[in-house]
Amino acid sequence: MERIRNRVTDPALKGILQKLQDGRRLDFEDGMALFATPDFLGLGAMANDVKEQKTGEDAYFVVNRQINPSNICVLSCKFCEFAAKKGDSKAYEMSLDEILARCGDDVAEVHIVGGLHPDWPFDVYLDIVRTIRKNFPRIQIKAYTAVEVDFFSRIAKLSVEKVLERLREAGMDTMPGGGAEVFSERVKKDLFPQKIGAEPWLRIHRLAHRMGIRSNATLLYGHIETREERVRHMLLLRDLQDETHGFLSFIPLSFQVGTTQIVDRPASAMEDLRTIAVARLLLDNFVHIKAYWVMLGLDVTAMALNFGADDLDGTIGKETIAHMAGADSPAGLTRNFLVGMIREAGRVPVVRDGLYNKLEVIGSVA
Ligand code: V47
């Protein structure tokens, strides 16, 4: 921290820098000051320094596939361009064969998330996991958000704990961080009134962590939420992480405007980087902060590696949620592309698995 003191010009940031140097925890006011500072590069330098203390020069990615088995959903969230009703022209359901075709022996992790289907019993969701596990015993399966787990518990009339047990028996390894949106009753009322709110989302992740299931956490920003709501959201996640240490990574998701008309334009590149940097500084008990290239775009993602992020998610294959909302990032990236991007950002590419075990550190070319 000392080495970056002269790169911080805003007096408010200097006070926060001192706190970090003294090992004191940042609070709500600090979070607000970090969002408000005009000293953008000072903020980035601080976040970068904390990133380097935690994960050195490493930038992680995983060879993965995202699988969205169906977009048919009983919910009607205003912000979501992915969901469809049965009979809509864009509605789809993947067969088990189609799902298996998305996997492969080179794939370390699959990420499964989709709609809350009105007709599929819990068994269909379990079968998806079981079938992947049976055909690809070594793949790590990151499956189903807290929103889906809550839905399964209602349709199958099982406790959340039982649902998680069944999923684990079927082959699920970890849980993705989706469905958290913003922990704000105000935003929920307007954008996703039927979806579970903060309390159930946090309760389900707490339960998963207690059962030894690691998970991620997200924040959907860049719509009608305020910076205050973003800070409060991060602090609620920090509290749960203090309690369980079960979160693997935090992923700020930049809202893709699509045709929703919720806002005129997406968050600016500076706001994206600011959000990543604030997350790195406030979430002192998270090791990994993910720059999700699908929603940030490739340029902001590369810059984020010097603004506090240490992970890029992965190669992905074919993503549907952001792309149905008009994301202009590519559908998937090759391993070589990610390596090049990480090197260009001055970092060391590390191929990881779904639990952040290092599979390969790609040293510099001779
Ligand atoms: O929960 C929906 C979001 C999430 C839009 O855990 C949108 O490793 C932006 O959670 N613009 C699903 N976001 C994706 C997700 C995720 C992604 C990558 C990695 C991980 C992980 C999790 O996508 C949803 C919702 O918050 N979303 N619509 C949109 N138009």
Structural commentary:
The protein is of the alpha/beta class. The chain folds into 2 domains: 2-48, no CATH class; 59-361, Aldolase class I (TIM Barrel), CATH 3.20.20.70. The protein is 41% helix and 13% strand. It has 14 helices and 10 strands. Helix 11 (269-282) links the parallel strand 6 and strand 7. The radius of gyration is 20 Å and the shape is globular. It binds ligand V47.
Which residues sit in consecutive blocks of at least 5 with pLDDT less than 50? none
CATH topology of the largest domain: TIM Barrel
Number of strands: 10
> Which superfamily, in CATH terms, is the homologous superfamily of the largest domain?
Aldolase class I
The shape, in one word, is globular
Chemical compounds bound to the protein = ligand V47
Main-sheet strand order equals 8-1-9-10
Name the average pLDDT.
96
Structural class: alpha/beta
What fraction of the residues are assigned to beta strands by DSSP?
A: 5-15%
* Fraction of residues in H or I helices: 40-55%
- Major pleated sheet: 4 strands, mixed
Q: What layout of secondary structure does this protein have?
A:
Layout: H1 11-21, H2 28-36, H3 40-55, E1 58-62, E2 64-67, H4 96-102, E3 109-112, H5 122-135, E4 140-143, H6 146-155, H7 160-170, H8 185-191, H9 198-210, E5 215-221, H10 227-244, E6 247-254, H11 269-282, E7 288-289, H12 293-296, H13 298-304, E8 311-314, H14 335-344, E9 348-352, E10 358-361
Parallel strand pairs: 1-8, 1-9, 2-3, 3-4, 5-6, 6-7
Antiparallel strand pairs: 9-10
Helix pairs in contact: 2-10, 2-11, 3-11, 5-7, 6-7, 6-9, 9-10
The structure holds ligand V47.
Ligand V47 binds at residues 79-82, 113, 176-179, 181, 216, 218, 220, 251, 253, 255-256, 258, 292, 295, 313, 321-322, 325.
